[in-house]
Write a structure and sequence with these properties.
Blueprint (H helix, E strand, L loop, with lengths): L12 E2 L10 H11 L6 E5 L1 E3 L2 E8 L2 E7 L1 H10 L7 E5 L10 H9 L3 E4 L3 E3 L5 E3 L10 E4 L8
Parallel strand pairs: 2-6, 6-7
Antiparallel strand pairs: 1-8, 3-4, 4-5, 7-10, 8-9
Amino acid sequence: FGATSGARKQDIIAADANLVGSLNKGKDLAAAAKRVQKEDGFTDVAVHGAPDHIEVFRMIAGEEKGVVLNHRNLAKFLKADKGYVGGNIRLLSCSTGKETGTFAQNLANKMGVAVKAPSDTLHIWPNGKMVIGSSPFKNTGKWITYYPQKGKKV
């Protein structure tokens, strides 16, 4: 992994809604996502995820709280976001591409674009390297690209 020598497991960010257990969950993932190499033709969306939903973190009454969203909520947000100019989406979001899940496919259908998502836990190293799998040290998962299915806007 190159510049990962000296990195500790606690330095690695997992974009999994169930695994992240520290304060500033949203800020940690946002910082990690900035280190990831961009992929031509895709807009990165970094959120904590699961096969059927995502989770974003908001400050509510001075405390960071998780808010669960479905693909419709994310599509509405993206369409209103001036930073998203359309086009394909890469979800930096754990397990949102899992074959048994529905999130990435439903988002592709709703947005009418290709959505690339990881099949398992997405670990982001301090140097920006990404590993998909249960361990941050071994890539056992994969990126899966979902395409809109005609007539299936859900």
